[in-house]
Amino acid sequence: MSESLRLVMAQLDMRVGDVAGNARQVIDAAVRARDELQADLIVFPELSFTGYPPEDLLHRQDFINTVGQAIAEVRDAVSGITLVVGFPHAEGGRLYNSAAVFQDDAVFGIYHKHHLANVSVFDDKRYFESGNQALVFSVKGLRFGVSICEDLWHPGPYDWAVEEGAQAVININASPFHSGKAAEREQVIRDRQKGVPLPVVYVNLVGGQDEVVYDGVSCVYDASGELVVRAPAFDEGLFPVDFRVDGARLVPLPGEVSDLPGDDALIYQALVRGTRDYVNKNGFPSVVLGLSGGIDSAMAAAIAVDALGAERVHAVMLPSRYTSQESLEDAAECAQLLGISYESVSIEAAFEGALGELRPLFGQQPEDVTEENLQSRCRGLMLMALSNKLGHMLLTTGNKSEYAVGYATLYGDMCGGFAPLKDVYKTLLYRLARLRNRAGEVIPERIITKAPTAELRPDQKDEDSLPPYPVLDDILARYVDDDSSIDAIVACGHEHAVVCQVVGLLHRSEYKRRQSAPGVKITRKAFGRERRYPITSGYQPWK
Ligand SMILES: Nc1ncnc2c1ncn2[C@@H]1O[C@H](COP(=O)(O)OP(=O)(O)OC[C@H]2O[C@@H]([n+]3cccc(C(=O)O)c3)[C@H](O)[C@@H]2O)[C@@H](O)[C@H]1O
Ligand SMILES: Nc1ncnc2c1ncn2[C@@H]1O[C@H](COP(=O)(O)OP(=O)(O)OP(=O)(O)O)[C@@H](O)[C@H]1O
Ligand SMILES: NC(=O)CC[C@H](N)C(=O)O
C-alpha cells in the first residue's frame, strides 16, 4: 500500500450527443493528468461519454453502440492511470446509468446508479434500470467506492461502499445549478457522512445544455466534513487532490479552495454561461435583439455581451408612434456603453400597412389589445427577418414574472430562439442590473429607475395591468416555486383578490409558456420540463 495518491477531478463540459468529442476529451484529460499532473486516478462526471441528459437518444440502439465503441477506444488508448468514467451501459436487455473503472487497459468493474433521479428536470427512470451493488476499487492499494449523483442524496450506495471497505467515496455528477444549490450539496454530503465518516470526492459537469447549466464546483470534503478542495464555478479544468495514508484512513490534504461568489453573482454567471453555450453549441455566429430602452432588453444585451463579446451582439431599436424620446436616448446609451452595434428600423409603415389591410375586416370594433399586439408582432417580423438574412439568432427578452402571467405577445415579443431571462423574476433583474453595473456601468441609471412600460399605447405602464412587481414576484415565488396554496399566500399578508388575479393569470397562460423559447434555469422550479402543467385544465383554484 502506498503512502500517498493524487486524484484529479475532471470538471469538464461534456457535450450532449457528441460521443466522439467527449471520448477525445476523456483521453486528452487522462493523458494530461498522468503526464503533467502525475496523477494516479482521474474522475469524470456522470454520463461523461454522452453528456447529460441525452434524453431519447438513449432509446436508439445505434447511439448506444456508438458509446460502446468510444469506450473501447478510450480503454485501449490510455494506460498508466486509473479512470472513472460515466456512460450508459446496456446489459441483458436493460440500460443502466453506469460508471466504469478502467485500469491497465481493462475494465476493472462497472457500477450502476441506484437512486435514479426522476424529479424536476430529471427523467432517469424513463431510460434506466436501477443497480443495487457497490463497486470498490483500489489504486496503489487505497480503496475507493463509486456512486453516481442522486445516489449521494439518499442512504444506500454510500453505506454499501463503506461495507465493502472503501476508504473514500467518489460521486460523479450531472448536477445543474440553481440558486442555493451549493449549500444543498454540502448538506447532502454531511448527511451521508453521519454514519461512517469517509472523505467524499464530488465531481460535477460544467456548461450549459438547453435549459440547464452545470456549475461545476467539484469538491472534496474530508471525513470530518471539512471542505478541503473546491473547483471554481462555471469553469472547466483539471483539479488535483492529494491523499495521504494515516493508519487505515485515507486523508485528503487541504488544496485549492476557490472562492464562491454571492448568490446573485452566481446567478449572473449562470445566465452568461448558459447563454454562451446555447448560442455557441448551436453554431450561431452572433445574436440580435430588440433594444427598447427598458430593463429587460438592456439586461439581455448585457448578458449576451458578457457571454459572446460585444462584436457578436446586434441591437435594433424599432420605434413606433408611442416610443418616447427617453426610450430612444436610453437604448442608444445602453448600446454605446455595451459597445454593440445599434440600428434603428421603424415599425410604423409595417404597422400602418397591416392595419390598413385589416380595417375592413375589423369593421367598427374599437381599438384594443389587438393593435398593441400588432406592433409587437411587427417588431418580431423585423427581428426574425434580420435573423434569417444575417444569421444572428434572435434573443427574446421576457422575464419570469412576465412568462408567469402571460404578459407577453405570442409571435410578437415572444419571437426568438433563446430567452436568457426566462427564469429571472423582475425584482431579481433589478438587483442583477445593479450588480453588473458595479463591474463597469452598462445599464444607464434611468433604465433602472424608470417605471417599466411596453410603450404599446400612450402612457402605458406595466402596473396598469399587473400588481407592483415586488407584490407580484412574492406571490409567484410562493405559488410557483414553493407550490403554496392561495390561502397560505393570503396568510402571509397578500390581498385575496390580488392573489387570485395572479394565480388566474398564471394558469390561463400555460399555453403561451408551452410555445416559448427555452431559457436558463436558475431557480428551484423553472418553467419548462421542471413545471409541467396541463394547458387544458378544469383546476381553477382562483375562482
Ligand atoms: N388556451 C389557449 N390555447 C391556445 N391559444 C390560446 C389560448 N388562449 C388564448 N389563445 C390565443 O392567444 C391569443 C392571445 O394571446 P396574445 O396574442 O399573445 O395576446 P394577449 O395575451 O391578449 O396580449 C398580450 C399581452 O402582453 C402584454 N405585453 C407586455 C409587455 C410587452 C408586450 C409586447 O408585446 O412587447 C406585451 C400586453 O400588454 C398584453 O397584455 C388569443 O387571441 C388566442 O389566439
Ligand atoms: N421600441 C422598441 N425597439 C426595440 N425593441 C422593442 C421596442 N419595444 C419593445 N421591444 C422589444 O420587445 C420586448 C418587450 O418589451 P417590454 O416592454 O416587455 O420590455 P423592455 O422594454 O425591455 O423592459 P420593460 O418591461 O422594463 O420596459 C423588449 O425587451 C424588446 O426586445
Ligand atoms: N443527475 C442527477 O442524479 C442529479 C440529481 C441531484 N439531486 C442533483 O441535482 O444534484
UniProtKB/TrEMBL annotation:
Gene assigned in the entry: nadE
Biological processes per GO annotation: NAD+ biosynthetic process
Residues at the active site: 46, 113, 149
One of the Pfam families matching this protein, by short name: CN_hydrolase
GO cellular component: cytoplasm
Keyword ATP-binding attached: yes
NCBIfam families to which the protein is assigned, alphabetical: nadE (TIGR00552), PRK13981.1 (NF010588)
Binding-site residues for ATP, renumbered to this chain: 290-297, 397
UniProt pathway: Cofactor biosynthesis; NAD(+) biosynthesis; NAD(+) from deamido-NAD(+) (L-Gln route): step 1/1
Species per Swiss-Prot/TrEMBL record: Natronocella acetinitrilica
Record-given protein name: Glutamine-dependent NAD(+) synthetase
Binding-site positions, L-glutamine: 175, 181
Keywords of this entry: ATP-binding, Ligase, NAD, Nucleotide-binding
Annotated catalysed reactions: deamido-NAD(+) + L-glutamine + ATP + H2O = L-glutamate + AMP + diphosphate + NAD(+) + H(+)
EC numbers: 6.3.5.1
A GO term, aspect molecular function: glutaminase activity
InterPro entries noted in UniProt: C-N_Hydrolase, C-N_Hydrolase_sf, Gln-dep_NAD_synthase, NAD/GMP_synthase, NAD_synthase, Rossmann-like_a/b/a_fold
Family: Belongs to the NAD synthetase family.
Record-listed deamido-NAD(+) binding positions: 373, 402, 512
Cited function: Catalyzes the ATP-dependent amidation of deamido-NAD to form NAD. Uses L-glutamine as a nitrogen source.
Domain named CN hydrolase: residues: 5-245
